[in-house]
Inverse folding.
């Protein structure tokens, strides 16, 4: 495979071009990296038709065979990890090491999802009747993946949807389409034609997909605002939806935590992938007794982290992925400056080409400030003091979001009770951002609908069917 040129869509197992193209930029240089095909309605119709034509044969394929093909696809991704890594860094901006980890994670996620099983529930087994409820595939899934982790978050959808017996039309973000296009090309060498189709395009393609009458379910990862629009457009045909949306994840650092030892881990909880993670720590509540030492340790460590072009050796943080997000992050910083909040580090745009924002840490801004209440999705972290556990739980739960949270403590057993009081889909204790294809992950409140991962995530791609036999 050529990973540097020839970017085409995959429809019905075949490469498909478009007369219309759009530019894909390298966010570290703001230069055109490549051009991707801009799908029109006819391309989407063809992709949906191919997925629908492939569905009867795929659902009739024994699950053991589907499992083996998905596992093989995971191996193929891992075999091409170096090629995917370089392309991912170029279009997304993350450093090579992080890109390598994402590609490996994408392959391993497919392999892990392939080990899952669909449950069968026996409702009655009596002298009168036998009744069971099993899970059957929904049909054609429209999957929309985001730009922050374009490969691994797409695999969150591909693995379980295909294992359950569905076929798929996959649409990546127009900011990061290239690795997904190459994944589609690779998948066409393994999967039957039409089982997985990849289409790319601009802002109009997403609504076309979510409204398309040939799509039976939509699985979307992205912002809460866009998720609401997805749900609205899917309602016209009662499409099933899974929505993994925004978050404003809180970390709680208790007074018994060894903050000097944890400083590096807490830094990366907030700043990994330049803060462009839905489950990144976006507000850090630190008990007053350890606030000052943690503040000093975080700033000292942050000064050692190199920011720059992710293709360069030694760089740990790359640029913001796209100009829209770059401007939004700068707007939050300007607001904090205008309001007179204290900056411990950063707070200015980098005077270089590319969408670079220096690491920015704020010192105890007000709870009602934009920098605390909004999801930054960039390299900004507000540190916030608290005195009592009941107080901090109330502040954490006051958010409209409920995706992830973390607790940092010297007494992890006691933290279990505290975790149960947090309104969040996932709560980590003394770690964060650990996800696995074997466990459910999803949000509460405005952070989403449904889950990904685990048996629960697999069941999201099925309908319940009860069969009763009279004896």
């Amino acid at each position: 495979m050529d990973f540097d040129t020839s970017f085409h869509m995959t429809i019905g197992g075949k490469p498909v071009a478009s007369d219309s193209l759009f530019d894909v930029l390298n966010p570290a240089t703001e230069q055109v990296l490549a051009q991707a095909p801009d799908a029109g309605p006819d391309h989407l119709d063809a992709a949906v038709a191919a997925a629908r034509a492939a569905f009867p044969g795929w659902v009739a394929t024994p699950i053991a065979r589907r499992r083996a093909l998905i596992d093989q696809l995971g191996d193929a991704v891992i075999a091409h990890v170096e090629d995917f890594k370089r392309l991912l860094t170029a279009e997304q901006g993350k450093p090579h090491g992080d890109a390598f980890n994402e590609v490996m994670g994408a392959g391993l996620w497919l392999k892990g999802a392939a080990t899952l099983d669909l449950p069968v529930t026996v409702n009655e087994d009596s002298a009168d009747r036998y009744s069971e409820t099993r899970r059957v595939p929904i049909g054609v899934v429209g999957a929309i993946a985001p730009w922050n982790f374009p490969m691994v978050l797409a695999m969150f959808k591909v693995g379980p949807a295909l294992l359950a017996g569905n076929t798929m039309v996959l649409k990546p973000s127009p900011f990061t389409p290239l690795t997904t296009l190459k994944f589609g090309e690779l998948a066409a060498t393994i999967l039957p034609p039409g089982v997985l189709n990849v289409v790319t395009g601009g802002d109009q393609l997403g609504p076309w997909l979510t409204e398309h009458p040939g799509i039976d379910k939509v699985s979307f990862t992205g912002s809460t605002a866009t998720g609401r629009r997805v749900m609205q457009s899917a309602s016209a045909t009662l499409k099933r939806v899974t929505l993994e949306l925004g978050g404003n994840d809180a970390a709680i650092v208790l007074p018994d935590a060894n903050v000097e030892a944890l400083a590096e881990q807490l830094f990366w909880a907030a700043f990994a992938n330049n803060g462009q993670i839905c489950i990144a720590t976006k507000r850090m509540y630190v008990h007053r007794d350890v606030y000052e030492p943690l503040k000093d340790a975080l700033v000292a460590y942050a000064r050692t982290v190199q920011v720059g072009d992710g293709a360069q050796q030694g760089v740990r943080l790359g640029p913001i992925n796209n100009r829209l997000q770059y401007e939004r992050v700068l707007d939050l910083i300007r607001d904090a400056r205008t309001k007179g909040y204290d900056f411990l580090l950063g707070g200015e745009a980098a005077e270089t080409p590319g969408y670079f924002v220096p690491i920015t840490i704020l010192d105890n801004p007000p709870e009602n400030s934009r920098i605390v209440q909004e999801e930054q999705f960039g390299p900004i972290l507000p540190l916030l003091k608290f005195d009592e556990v009941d107080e901090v739980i109330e502040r954490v739960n006051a958010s409209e979001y409920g995706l992830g949270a973390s607790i940092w403590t010297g007494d992890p057993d006691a933290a279990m009770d505290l975790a149960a009081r947090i309104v969040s889909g996932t709560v980590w204790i003394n770690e964060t951002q650990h996800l696995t294809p074997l466990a459910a992950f999803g949000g509460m409140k405005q952070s989403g609908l449904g889950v990904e991962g685990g048996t629960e995530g697999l069941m999201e791609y099925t309908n319940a069917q009860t069969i009763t036999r009279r004896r």
Summary: The chain has a mean pLDDT of 97.
